[in-house]
Amino acid sequence: MTPRSFVYLAAAAVVSAAVAIVTFAANNQWGTGPVGGARLMPTLENAIGQVAEVSIQQGDTKVVLARSGGSWTLKSRGGYPVDIAKVRTLLVGLGQAELVEPKTNRPDKYPALELEDPAGKGAKSRLVKLTDAKGGTIAEAVLGKNRQEGYAGKTAGTYVRKPGDPQTWLASVALDAPFGVKDWVKPSVLALQADKIKSVSVEIPGEQPLKIERTPPAPAKDAKTKDAGTKDAGAKAAKATGAKDAGATDAAKAESKDAKAAAPPAEPGKLAFVGFPADGKKLKDAYAAEGLARAAGSIDLEDVRKLGALPSDGISVVRIESANGLTTTLRLRKDGDAYWLSVTAAGSEGDAKKAADEITARTKDWEFKIPTYKAELILKKRADLLETQGS
């Protein structure tokens, strides 16, 4: 190869490399793509105290949380108290979330990240909007599904986008913004100690009432009678063997003392139906009374609404008497396919009054939607509890 040919080939190689670099740069748009590191809601961290409402929308469902003094309530449910720790966790998370990894900007790819239009039918995305006391928008974002920390150092977080901006991102915080009522409140409506329930009555319209009572504990052996019997036995044995009466009596006392120390405390009785089942009938479940009482004494809500005027019929009444004197009354009714519950409580003094006041403060003027299975466990008819003939 001549020197001149070598120069030509070298020049051609340089030109080809330059063209390749330019082409690669043009196709990859160096420096023009989205860059991470910005906050999802840049102004929120310094404006959390100004947030007056938080709305969360998914499809036709919308939950609105409203600040009320130093607490939060469900505005969309008539002002029912919200668990303030859950609101604080969401607001802090939104304020700290950074956009760490750009994703698609194509709307047809949004469903894979659950970032489709939150108002659409069947949407899995959630629109979270924060407003101030005058209704002005402080910040808003569409939240998608969470990404768990995975292999190859993948960052955990939540897929997000801003309304009006096609670019989607992975945010640095796992954000939880549920739209179910029970996810924002303290779900327990009633939590009575099962072993302290003394009696339960169930009155269902058109059905014979059911009564459950705790049977008295088995009586402990009378220590005095046993002591006396032991003394007599010791005296007779001493007379028969010619031993001294004093020594036999001392031995009997010692035996009686040991027996009393070893005697276990009486166990509380079991709950059982009163006057049911009739002779010749048998319960499907020998523990049905215990199960019904436990179900009535421990209830969580699914939804809540203001208590209006109750209808004059179609209401089942369950009364629970506790050992400390607390009386709790449940009124259950069916509205459409759902069961709704209202609660009252009474106690005259001491622990009973304290418990009644606490239940009343939490449940007065409210009606609670409860799971269907729970209502069916409580509202047992006599026929439901009996074995069928031939079974």
Number of E strands: 19
Low-confidence stretches: 21-32, 233-249, 251-267
Strand content: 25-35%
What profile does the largest beta sheet have? 9 strands, antiparallel
Description of the molecule:
The longest helix has 26 residues, at 3-28. The relative contact order is 0.10. Helix 4 (223-241) packs antiparallel against helix 5. The chain is α+β, with helices and mostly antiparallel strands and 391 residues long. Helices cover 29% and strands 27% of the residues.
Short summary:
The chain has 391 residues and is of the alpha+beta class.
Give me the secondary-structure topology:
Elements: H1 3-28, E1 53-58, E2 61-68, E3 71-74, E4 80-81, H2 84-96, E5 99-102, H3 110-113, E6 126-131, E7 137-147, E8 157-161, E9 168-171, E10 188-191, E11 197-203, E12 210-214, H4 223-241, H5 245-262, E13 271-273, H6 288-297, E14 298-300, E15 303-306, E16 316-322, E17 327-335, E18 338-346, H7 350-363, E19 366-370, H8 372-378, H9 382-385
Antiparallel strand pairs: 1-2, 1-6, 2-3, 3-4, 5-9, 6-7, 7-8, 8-9, 10-14, 11-12, 11-16, 12-13, 15-19, 16-17, 17-18, 18-19
Helix pairs in contact: 4-5
For this entry, give a set of tags.
391 residues; alpha+beta; nine-stranded antiparallel β-sheet; 9 helices; elongated
